[in-house]
């Protein structure tokens, strides 16, 4: 009788729900494009409730966090992934998959406004940086994933310059203003709020030509900032991705695929709802620059 009563009491206890799996997502600056797009997806996909944002310095830190198993997802530039694979020959990159292909991020090259000196014979000499080729034997400050982009562009365009590693954006521009760097290179999706706040009297946008040597990694693009130039400035851009590791466990796999499916199905909302980042206008979810998570 006691045994029967115990079984009845046990049967009346409700089964506990499985503990939800939370996953960390490396984004970037709280005012950056990555953070904004992560929050945007969160507004249209309830699956993001179990994803926690982790602010970082950008793509380079993000891929390191992902490879070292400190986060489960990371927003990264595809050229940083390719550099890890092809230059660093990091075997761990083979376990990285693209959960979502995203927008192109433009390469912004900044320098102080150049001056021009005319000789007696009429030859004009540029003092400073007016075009990409002027970077030869100069110093370019960068931070985060932009450090990799700066090195790749120097090698592919055959314009040798020294890449100066800066802690962050403020440190990079401080180096420019103090003369410790001749230019600042930053990869960021336009329109970037902080670029719109720069003073055109102190800094210029320097054009970057699109050449066959960079095709396959970068695409041609144009920068449009009225505060820095009355005209569009040619540059190159690299596609970004939301990357993850190739998880096989059922609960993580289901969560990631549900999140992916929701984002793919809500592209129109991400592009048309008020308050969404303008970079969604360029996203098609059709071009995958890295193997897809399936």
TrEMBL record:
<dbReference type="InterPro" id="IPR011852">
    <property type="entry name" value="TRAP_TAXI"/>
</dbReference>
<protein>
    <submittedName>
        <fullName>TAXI family TRAP transporter solute-binding subunit</fullName>
    </submittedName>
</protein>
<dbReference type="Pfam" id="PF16868">
    <property type="entry name" value="NMT1_3"/>
</dbReference>
<feature type="signal peptide">
    <location>
        <begin position="1"/>
        <end position="17"/>
    </location>
</feature>
<keyword id="KW-0732">Signal</keyword>
């Amino acid at each position: 009788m006691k045994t029967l009563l115990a079984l009845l009491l046990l049967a009346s206890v409700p089964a506990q729900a499985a503990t939800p799996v939370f996953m960390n997502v490396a984004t970037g600056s709280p005012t950056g494009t990555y953070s904004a797009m992560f929050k945007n997806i969160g507004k249209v996909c309830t699956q993001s409730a179990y994803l926690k944002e982790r602010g970082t310095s950008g793509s380079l830190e993000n891929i390191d966090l992902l490879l070292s198993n400190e986060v489960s997802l990371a927003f990264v530039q595809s050229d940083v992934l390719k550099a890890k694979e092809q230059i660093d020959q990091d075997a761990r990159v083979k376990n990285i998959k693209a959960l979502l292909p995203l927008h192109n991020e433009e390469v912004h090259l900044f320098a102080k406004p150049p001056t021009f000196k005319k000789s007696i014979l009429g030859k004009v000499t540029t003092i400073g940086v007016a075009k990409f080729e002027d970077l030869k034997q100069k110093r370019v400050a960068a931070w985060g994933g932009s450090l990799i982009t700066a090195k790749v562009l120097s090698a592919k365009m055959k314009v040798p310059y020294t890449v100066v590693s800066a802690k962050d954006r403020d440190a990079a521009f401080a180096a420019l203003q103090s003369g410790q760097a001749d230019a600042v290179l930053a990869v960021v999706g336009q329109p970037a709020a902080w670029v719109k706040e720069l003073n055109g009297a102190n800094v210029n946008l320097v054009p970057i030509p699109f050449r066959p040597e960079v095709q396959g990694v970068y695409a041609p693009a144009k920068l449009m900032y009225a505060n820095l130039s009355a005209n569009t400035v040619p540059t190159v851009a690299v596609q970004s991705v939301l990357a993850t590791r190739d998880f096989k466990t059922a609960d993580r796999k289901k969560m990631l695929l549900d999140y992916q499916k929701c984002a793919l199905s809500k592209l129109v909302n991400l592009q048309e709802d008020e308050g969404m980042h303008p970079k969604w206008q360029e996203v098609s979810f059709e071009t995958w620059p890295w193997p897809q998570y399936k």
